[in-house]
Amino acid sequence: MARLCRGVADVWNITLRNMQFRARQLLIAIVGTALVFAMALLVTGLKEAFKTEGDRVIESIGGDAWVLPAGAARPFTGFTPMQVADADRIGAVPGVDRADPLLLIQQNIQKGSDIKQFVVVGHRIGGLGEPPPEEGRRARAPGEVVADRSLGFDLGETFTIKDRRFTAVGLVSNKTFAGGTPLVYLPIEDVQDLAFNKTPIAKAVVITGTPRGLPREFKVMSPGQVRDDLLLPLRGAESSINYTRLLLWLVAAVIVGAVMYMSALERVRDFAVLKAVGATTRTLVVSLAAEAVLACLIAAALAIGFAQLLLPIFPLPITYTIGTFAVLPVIAVVVGVLASLAGVRRAVRTDPAAAFAGT
Amino acid sequence: MVDLKIQNLTIEYTQSDYVVRPIDSLDVEAVDGELVILLGPSGCGKTTLLSCLAGILTPTAGRITVGDVEVVGLHGPALAHYRRHAVGIVFQAFNLIPSLNARENVMAPLRVAGVSARPARARAEELLTRVGLEDRMDHRPKALSGGQQQRVAIARALVHDPPLVLADEPTAHLDYVQVEDILRILGDIAAPGRLVVIATHDERLVPLADRAIDLAPKAVAGAEPPSRLHLEPGQVLFTIDSVSDFVYTVDEGEIDLVRPRPDRTEETVYTAGPGDYFGELGPLLGLPRSATARARTAAVVTGHGARDFKRLTKPRRMRLPPRSATGQTT
């Protein structure tokens, strides 16, 4: 490592001067690469948003744990009904402070010309499962809902689902999942009416406290496990994002690599001269790699700015974490090293005897 | 003390699909402090020889000794050390790095050799002052005249204070005022402890040299009487790279003009028949043979001296092929 640093220091001036000399073409490559990096940051932020949304949904529902029938696979992606009365039995278990039934279904409504899809969280009025609204109040009676703002409801606005009228009495923010699908919190009776012909069933029971001696027909899931289940349908999307991100990094490497290669072609005589006056191949490799890495690092810095600028116009929720940005310089270095390979190959192959060639 | 000794040096290389031997069994000796001029036309091997002296090209055979260093056979760190510290090169067309200013161009060999910035800078400024460029240190090559660029190139060549300085056509791109400056500097640096070798085609430089080595093939005077030769099938008339003497006309039979390929096979460039002539450009221009002539069948050819051939072809020009039978400089 010390040798490498020494090597960089020895050729730093040559590297920097070459970058100044070719500033215009390098600037184009840097801006192009920065935009590609910014896109990579955005899709990374989208992937991060999936997790954040999941956390917010679980947090908005509240409780310390979820109780499901012992045979139930998952609370969101599976459906093994339990009775609302089970919530009272679970509530009576020692260590449980509170237990409320929960029922989750997906619904659509026509809003203007759009069909909006949302997830309905059915909760017991005054119980767990309904977040405190930022505006308005909690539901006090059937037919009253607290909705995420992204649905576009105003306070007091009414809407119809399956011939039943509902009124938005409270509004919350950032209560979405799967890339922006909003949540609507309804009294559980309304959900039973909408989807199960008023059958008093629930999908899970949310509890506070730590149950001791829970009946065998039930099992407990932590909020983390529930969140993982919530995100399960998004694994395909996450995988696509990972591939897209990889592709974007490759595109960045190709952009910088193309410029580095063109630069190397123009500098064949320089390489030959430097070799003829004693520069080792390693020196030239270090110089080219340093140039590409520096270009990528500048692009990475620009990309952070671009990613912030693009945020308002990106149609999906984005969450940037420190990790999203912290990993970018590392990626920039890797992309830079990859990008320098084509130019490096040209430099390595340059015969110092070419320095003797005339004009 | 640095003496130069070249013994039985042969350089052969492949040019696309044929083999060239510009230097064949060359012996040269020069002593410390001399200004040596390698003279000859383009293609005679001057630059190739400089490349070998610089340790950039490995000759096919022979020895090169600079001081007590056997250059041929050096490799790895020893070769890198030789290139960095024992040889300074002034390239044809200056070959300065366009992105660096004059000072940085001179510093470059020091920096790549691991010398830290401050002493490298001081050394570069000292040398640039020595060649009269103290006011132009911050200028990039594009902002310097040809002569100034060449002076920067000389300063760069001297940066390690090498015992051997090689200059390839140092006056090729300069006007006569600049030529005078450059030759004065090169003359000055050829002093005890340093040998300067200049490759040039400019014979005007010869009086400046302590030693001039003519690498041009020795063409015959051109006044030889015509000679008629009888060749058996397969008999070689002349070989590639040999000294060009006669121009030949074919009286009877066929002559193959062949060139060796890199894979040691041969390529027949042309087969000359009765009435054809070949091998005229070599004697006329003083170039070595560029192909081997070998009888395909029993043949009779007549050799003409260059002057004789010119006289012969003038009235016959319309009757002879408009170009050489080979189209090559055989």
Structure description:
The complex is a heterodimer of chains A (359) and B (330). The mean pLDDT of chain A is 88. Chain A has helices at residues 2-21, 23-61, 84-91, 188-196, 223-231, 235-266, 268-276, 281-310, 322-349; strands at 65-69, 82-83, 96-111, 114-123, 135-136, 144-148, 158-161, 164-172, 176-177, 181-187, 201-202, 204-209, 218-221. In chain A, helix 1 (2-21) crosses helix 8 (281-310). Chain A is α+β, with helices and mostly antiparallel strands. In chain A, the strands form two sheets. In chain A, strands 1, 3, 4, 5, 6, 7, 8, 9, 10, 12 and 13 form an eleven-stranded mixed sheet that branches. A two-stranded antiparallel ribbon of chain A has the order 2-11. Chain B is elongated and about 75 Å long. The two termini of chain B are 43 Å apart. The longest helix of chain B has 14 residues, at 117-130. In chain B, helix 3 runs parallel beside helix 5 and helix 5 (146-157) runs parallel beside helix 6. Chain B has 330 residues and is α+β, with helices and mostly antiparallel strands. The A-B interface holds A 6, 10-11, 13-14, 17-18, 20-22, 269-270, 273-274, 276-280, 283, 351-353, 355-359 and B 47, 50-51, 54, 56-57, 80, 83-85, 89, 91-93, 95, 97-100, 104, 107-109, 111-114, 117, 156, 160, 168-169, 172-173.
